[in-house]
Amino acid sequence: xxxxxxxxxxxxxxxxxxxxxxxxxxxxxxxxxxxxxxxxxxxxxxxxxxxxxxxxxxxxxxxxxxxxxxxxxxxxxxxxxxxxxxxxxxxxxxxxxxxxxxxxxxxxxxxx
Length: 112
What we know:
This protein is α/β, with parallel strands linked by helices.
């Protein structure tokens, strides 16, 4: 392990502006406290910075829906778990469009 228990190549937030620790946004690794808002805030901050790593230290993070964004990596430290909430109100699903109906996207034939 590297600095502050992180894997080599990943530096804690004070040293790396593209490192976003979910506990600094209010997520609590106790398996009881809902953390989706804090986790999504960390993801939003990483995306706003042009990309980055959202870090989960060891522990269990209870969460509803997590909305991933481009150029954002989730890094779960050894011993870290994201536990899905059993509360249906915590779960929000994005509406998916069938491939043939996405504006500007045309199905392409598979190469032979």
